[in-house]
Amino acid sequence: MRHYGRVVIVALVLAHGVGCKGASSVCPEGTHLVKERSTPGKEVWCRSKDGATARWLIFNGRDLLQSCGFRDGKAEGTFTAWHPGGKPWLQGDYREGAKVGRWTQWDAAGNKVAEGEYRTGQYVSGAPVGTPAQCERLKP
Fold first, then answer.
1. pLDDT values of the chain reduced to their tens digit, one per residue, 140 residues
2. For residue 20, what pLDDT is reported?
3. Residue 136 three-state SS
4. Does residue 76 contact residue 61 with C-beta atoms inside 8 Å?
5. Which of 51, 5, 44 lies closest to 21 in space, CA to CA?
């Protein structure tokens, strides 16, 4: 399981909060808060100085619910969503704006409940667990 990124993000959220002052602390290293696209306690947009990379974080108050990365305007890297309370709910990868590889879903107790395989954005086998992830529709 690839949950290591959440540990860092959650630690920053807990240490600094997600209010107006603390939101910039949630942004990954090398990025800064995009204030005009962020809503404290709901969503945070972070972007690199050169604009090539971005990260979108969705919150329910202080709880991180979703995280999605972007490169050159397209979804890129690991997407993760969490159940309220912090257990993983959904995880998979994006490459050049498309879902790829194995996507996994867990129930609120942490039990794996489904897996599905994607190739260049197309669901190919298993369960279509990547459907709730909509990063490919966003414009950073």
1. 444 444 334 333 333 344 434 455 789 899 999 999 999 899 999 999 999 999 999 999 889 999 999 999 999 999 999 999 899 999 999 999 999 999 999 999 999 999 999 999 999 999 999 888 889 889 88
2. 38
3. helix
4. no
5. 44
H-type helices in 2-96, by residue range? 4-16, 23-26
Among candidates 127, 10, 123, which has minimal Cα distance to 67?
10
Q: Residue 16: its pLDDT value, please?
A: 36
* Nearest CA-CA partner of 51 in 28, 79, 32: 32
Which residue pairs from 17-24 have beta carbons closer than 8 angstroms and sit at least 24 positions apart in sequence? Answer: 17/62, 18/44, 18/59, 18/61, 18/62
DSSP-derived secondary structure for 29-49? TTEEE-GGG-BTTTEEEEEET
Domain spanning 4-137, CATH class: alpha beta
Helix (H) or strand (E) holding 71: strand 63-71
Please give the helix or strand (H or E) that residue 54 lies within, else none.
Answer: strand 53-60
Rounded CA-CA distance 55/99 in Å is 16
